[in-house]
Amino acid sequence: MSVTRLASTGEMIGADFFRRDPLCCARELVGCELIWGRCGGVIVEAEAYNAIGDEACHCFVRPSTRAFVERNQAGAVYIYLNYGVHWMLNVLVKGTENGFVLIRALQPTRGIALMKRRRRVDDERQLCSGPGKLTQALDITIRHHEMNVCVNKRFCFRKPSHSVEVVADRRIGIRVSAHFPWRFTSRDNQHVSVRPQMGGELRSGE
DNA sequence: TTCGTGATAGAG
DNA sequence: TCTATCACGAAG
């Protein structure tokens, strides 16, 4: 009986990774493992937000977000409370284009029992299959805001041990600029928050 | 489908 | 001060 292992190589992702552009970072983060203290999981869903020309990015409407970009280095986490309930985990990309990657879903790999207690669910698919779920499972809150994930081995990203097939489709949950195909998911993965639309993959001319 | 929840920003 | 908005999730 074969079991799919989703372990990472152990090689930590450095700041250079985030000194490029948000699309490229979001796409390549799929398959990487997020380590957060005693817990972690493989990223199976991520979205890109561009600081310039993207109405859905907080930079478009929030002066405080633009200030965050100015004062922080690539790899800093940007955390905010959504709908008064859910913390959102983003990573600052500061390079050829500035912006953020929103981490939207994980396939749990470590600290699963602890995450189940925090989430008060037993089904592993319910642990981290959404941006608000994963922050609850990993106990990510505003206290982590502005922490840099490229300098601390306890809170970092690790490169994948194997390549993953990535699907690009429209971003979800936003009311503006949703047409950009800037959501990246791991193909057929059961831990993705919402399955990509049929035919929603990257097509030429989009 | 509806609704809770609080940070943020902008108007008055 | 007041109000609109919001990258969500759970319940029904």
Give an account of the 3D structure:
- With 206 residues, this protein is an alpha+beta fold.
- It is built from 4 helices and 9 strands; from the N terminus they run E-H-E-E-H-E-E-E-H-H-E-E-E.
- Strands 1, 2, 3, 4, 5, 6, 7, 8 and 9 form a 9-stranded antiparallel sheet that branches.
- Strand 5 (86-94) and strand 6 form a beta hairpin.
- Helix 3 (112-119) crosses helix 4.
- It is globular and about 40 Å long.
- It binds a DNA duplex (12 and 12 nucleotides) through strand 4, strand 5, strand 6 and helix 4.
User: What would you call the shape?
Assistant: globular
Helix content: 10-25%
Tally of DSSP helical segments: 4
Rounded radius of gyration (Å):
16 Å
Oligomer: single chain
Strand residues, percent: 25-35%
Whole-Å distance between the termini?
A: 42 Å
The overall pLDDT, averaged over residues, is: 92
Main beta sheet: strand number and arrangement?
Answer: 9 strands, antiparallel
> Given the helix and strand composition, which structural class is it?
alpha+beta
Secondary-structure element order, as H and E? Answer: EHEEHEEEHHEEE
Give the uncertain stretches in residue-range form.
Answer: 1-5, 200-206
Number of strands: 9
Features:
globular; 16% helix; 4 helices; 206 residues; 9-stranded antiparallel sheet; DNA-binding; 9 strands; alpha+beta; disordered C terminus
Briefly say what this structure is.
By secondary structure, the protein is an alpha+beta fold. Helix content is 16%, strand content 31%.
